[in-house]
Amino acid sequence: MRVAIIGAGIGGLTAAAALRTNGIDVIVYEKAHELREVGAGVVVANNGQRALDAVGLGDRVREVGTHIERTVWSTWHGEDVPVPPAWPSVTPGRPVTSLPVHRGELQQALLGALPAGTVHLGRPCQDVIETADGARIVFADGSEEHADIVVGADGIHSAVQQVVAGPVELSSEGIMAYRGLIPVERLDDSVDLQRMQMWLGPGRSFLIYPVSRGRLLNIVAFTATDLDAEESWTAPGDVRALAAEFADWAHPVPAIIDALPETFRWGLYDRKSLGRWSTDRITLLGDAAHPVTPHLGQGANMAIEDAVVLATVLAGASVADVPQRLALYESLRRDRTSRIQQNARQAGAIYRATDLSAQEQAAGLTAILAGDWIPDYDAAAAAEAALASL
Fold it and tell me: What is the pTM of this model?
């Protein structure tokens, strides 16, 4: 059986490696002509690491991750506020609660788990046509390829999603994020490189954490906007405009912004749940299936969980089993990802609120993050149990 994955992002590459671990032939088609190192950090949380461990990728990813000792929340004036209990301290049972990773380094680590020739660059998917025995992929240059299963891991603007579910309108959250990376030698000693820190203020927030094993500081600054900012990791931003947004915030926030060599704008978008993710031979994962705003730090983790669940339920399947297995995959993922989407929306509303104090924002976020259902989830175990009950 051959699986074709459209998209070589975090979810697509994780799926490819996980499927190969289960003995399934995989090919990945990516529209970009090169896999560039996007200047942004992501966080692989406990649940993402657990899923990666299940398919033998955890150590590979931890090699490029950065250990952090603690998480700190502050008001925009610099006063400490409580951190939600759902963000537990490091213990033997939770060896790393959050693993910050440079997105490009994570992508390269996953790519390194695949044999040469698995990923084909410069192949933008234009259409997918389901057939009686699989699916036909039509590329922008008119060429075609056939596979038994096609997986759309091609992001929020997914071409495969259009085939599976039809057009679905995106909605702006009214928040824009500035992103950037700072070489640590440009920072003074007031910046603690052993922790993740969030400053909360009216309608704005500012997040920092180290990546590239402590060589770079990742920053994400959320501000309200009524503009249709591009949903892109690489749209250029204006450091001066960012500095103006946070000019009166407590030290070291303005100093961190001053150290930024460049910044990128990232519009935050969401959409209502799809009526379906799958047909008999085509399915979706990650943002193609369920785009999630970044306020819980779970976007990459949901894509990783999707990939591992999909690979688990397809293990040992015949071509005739595929429709049932894809339906099982979707049923396993729909409720959890929908809950993550909804909670992220609620968190976004708190972050952009202008009538709440930082303490009130923290209390609201604590309520959203309460419990262990996010970090303690075992995606592979859930999939194995469901598969055994078929």
Answer: 0.94
